[in-house]
Amino acid sequence: MLTAAGDDELDPVVGPEPPTEAATPRVLTIISHVMEKLVARNEWLAKQTKGFGKSLEAFHGVRAPSITIAKYLERIYKYTKCSPSCFVVGYVYIDRLAHKYPGSLVVSLSVHRLLVTCVMIASKILDDVHYNNEFYARVGGVSNADLNKMELELLFLLDFRVTVSFRVFESYCFHLEKEMLLNGDASSLKDSRPMQECLSPTSSLSTLYV
Q: Which DSSP letter does residue 107 get?
């Protein structure tokens, strides 16, 4: 189980088996790639500055888990069935934290716990039906008590600014698509038109979810 101590293995989730035919949305791959780059940069910065800011200490485990960010996000999506938009909004929360607390770095000790907390809160905001904290804790490999504490901590760190306007959501879609294009993944886009022409209130991430 991925506990606060950062154990290597995640326990199987007890509950309905998720559909095996569902493909992982491409947006998860993009976000995991962006987060991996962020963590790598922050680990280097942390070595240079000899420490971290204190704002994100509530999300630190004793050691980094062995599961990759990509596999961790896939696990959350597979078992919670939250909408792909939740991962984008969760990424918005992390970016807001980075701007509000620039001295507090998202590193390997905190990234997994931060991600599951952000996605869970986003699912409560966006999805009509969502699992409770206890289920998210089992999926994320943390204790329910820890997840409850991290949820409250995150809400206060964000000053309870957890709503995301369509304009902001759209801007992050552009950013994520740019990352995809910069990393040579343009072939994954079924529609070759510029994102400005493809976006609509009902298809904001249609090119990313494939």
A: -
- Residue-number span of the structural domain to which 44 is assigned: 26-157
Question: Do the domain assignments include residue 166?
Answer: no
Classify residue 54: in a domain, yes or no. yes
Helices (H), the chain: 26-49, 69-80, 85-100, 111-126, 133-140, 144-157, 166-182, 195-198
The pLDDT, as a whole number, for residue 171 is 92
Whether residue 77 is contained in a domain is answered as yes
Q: For the chain, which residues score pLDDT lower than 50?
A: 4-8, 14-16, 19, 21, 186-210
CATH assignment at residue 109: 1.10.472.10
For the entire predicted model, the pTM comes to 0.80
Q: What b/e sequence results for 2-31 when a residue is b if at least 16 CB atoms lie within 10 Å of its CB, and e otherwise?
A: bebebbeebeebeeeeeeeeeeebbbbbbb
CB of 72 closer than 8 Å to CB of 112: yes
Report how many domains make up the chain.
Answer: 1
Q: 67 in a domain, yes or no?
A: yes
Tokens for 200?
């609509």
What distance lies between CA 67 and its chain's CA centroid?
14
Contacts of 96 (CB under 8 A, 6+ apart): 158, 161
Rounded Cα–Cα distance for residues 210 and 205 (Å) = 9
